[in-house]
Specification:
Elements (H helix, E strand, L loop, with lengths): L13 H29 L4 H18 L3 H16 L3 H28 L1 H5 L6 H14 L3 H16 L4 H23 E2 L3 E2 L3 H24 L16 H74 L3 H37 L3 H14 L3 H16 L4 H12 L1 H12 L1 H28 L4
Antiparallel strand pairs: 1-2
Length: 448
């Protein structure tokens, strides 16, 4: 294999799969914690600043979906090239995804900076909150090229089976963010004055810039992954089309999911007031722990399958799928039981207010019914991605996530706020059934 890459086409299956998945999970958790850290420190400044950071965090979630164009394409294309022992092709894909990532990130950064006021008007914020959010977004937009390229490099490492390296470097960025946040937000008496919400934004830019620099340094070392592939190249149409074809479905799936989630929060506010919003947002964070775990194994499975698919060793790929499915279903069962019988207590750890804990407990109770199906969907998504078929998971996800909006309005008119939760649950159950059926159909047709 190419210098620095792991070979998944021979040897044990379960152990290497878990070793690949755990760092990916950790990296995903850390990236989620950036804005949570900002919100935690800014919480002392006032609710308007917290709302501003929350709105920008939701917006950045939407636009970060464009980074998946190159991240997912890097994971799949590099994995398949390495599995087929086409090392020069793997380097070409790494260079092309990096070049495209820079181009896309600059476009997104310029748009967010120049259109901050207009794009944030979607959230209908109060004038003061809007002003804080615009100020925060215009500073954070400078970190977009760093964060997009970091995600791309993470995809390169994942595709080569070396997920542990970006995990360590991304964690260092979170540590820096935690250190710089209080210093820049509140300042140091007698030395310099705190900058408030601007300080939190600057801390994020610094942290992302440092992680980017560390990854560049690591990649340019003599033992860098893929023999120090060139970062920027003249784009070739064939490689570029392949990258966009792989990344487009997943990017659109994530973008739609973020937009739909925003509308569901709005519906929850209509039928449940502020308690409905708290239940959906805080409950989503709790549920996000299991989602990120499953997504980490899904990404690892995709990298593992990509190599074996290209090497013509689909028996190993299917064995990895079964191992991952068994592990994720076990997790799904445990989470289901926890949400069914201790949902209110779990939610109360995050939001101890009795009324909020009760509302959140009802959300987690309904969420319990689709946890197993979510594991089925995400694990099967990894299998599809590894074979280069990124379209089926996107089609299933977009169709049934969009269905949540009319279902939420209809069910809520009958059942109140709990109808919104059941709309989410029913669509989640359908997704978890439909995608595996699609996979089984393709296998019977001997297409995977």
């Amino acid at each position: 294999m190419t210098t620095g890459a792991k070979d998944f086409t021979r040897g044990a299956i379960f152990g290497p799969l878990v070793k690949l998945a755990l760092p990916i999970m950790t990296t995903n958790f850390v990236q989620m914690l950036y804005y949570l850290t900002d919100m935690a420190w800014i919480g002392r400044l006032g609710s308007e600043q917290v709302a501003a950071v929350g709105a920008v965090g939701m917006l950045m979630w939407m636009f970060s979906s464009f980074a998946l164009f190159t991240k997912v394409a890097a994971e799949v294309s590099i994995g398949q090239a390495l599995g087929a022992r086409k090392n020069r092709v793997a380097k070409a894909f790494a260079s092309h995804t990096t070049t495209l990532s820079l181009i896309i990130s600059i476009v997104v950064a310029v748009f967010l900076f120049s259109s901050a006021d207009w794009v944030l008007s979607f959230f209908k914020l109060s004038p003061y909150t809007q002003a804080y959010a615009v100020e925060y977004l215009r500073i954070v937009s400078w970190s977009v090229p760093f964060s997009f390229l970091v995600m791309n490099f993470v995809g390169v490492y994942n595709g080569a089976g070396r997920s542990n390296i970006p995990m360590l470097l991304v964690c260092s960025g979170l540590v820096l963010n935690i250190i710089f946040d209080p210093l820049l937000i509140y300042g140091i008496d007698g030395i310099f004055k705190g900058m408030g919400i601007r300080g939190a934004a600057i801390a994020t830019v610094i942290a992302q810039g440092v992680v980017f620099s560390l990854l560049v340094y690591r990649l340019r070392r003599h033992d860098g992954i893929l023999n120090r592939f060139p970062f920027f190249v003249r784009l070739r149409s064939g490689v570029t089309v392949r990258i966009l074809r792989l990344g487009f479905p997943i990017a659109m799936m994530t973008l739609f999911f973020a937009i739909i989630n925003s509308y569901l929060v709005r519906i929850a506010s209509i039928y449940g007031g502020h308690l409905g919003v708290v239940a959906k947002t805080a409950g989503g964070q709790i549920e996000g722990i299991t989602w990120i775990t499953a997504q980490g194994f899904s990404t690892a499975l995709g990298a593992f399958v990509a190599q074996n698919f290209a090497a013509g060793k689909m028996s190993r790929a299917w064995m990895a799928y079964r191992y991952t499915l068994g592990l994720m279903l076990t997790l799904g069962i445990l989470v289901t039981l926890a949400f069914l019988f201790a949902g209110e207590q779990i939610f109360g750890v995050i939001v101890p207010e009795p009324a909020a804990a009760t509302a959140g407990g009802k959300f987690l109770f309904v969420a319990a019914f689709y946890q197993i199906f979510m594991m089925l969907e995400l694990t099967t998504q990894g299998m599809f991605n590894g074979t280069g078929r990124t379209m089926p998971p996107a089609v299933i996800s977009i169709i049934f996530n969009l269905a949540r909006i009319p279902m939420a309005y209809i069910f809520a008119s009958w059942m109140g706020i709990e109808g919104v939760w059941w709309a989410i649950a029913i669509s989640g159950i359908i997704k978890g059934i439909a995608l595996p059926i699609w996979l089984v159909k393709l296998r019977r047709e001997r297409k995977v």
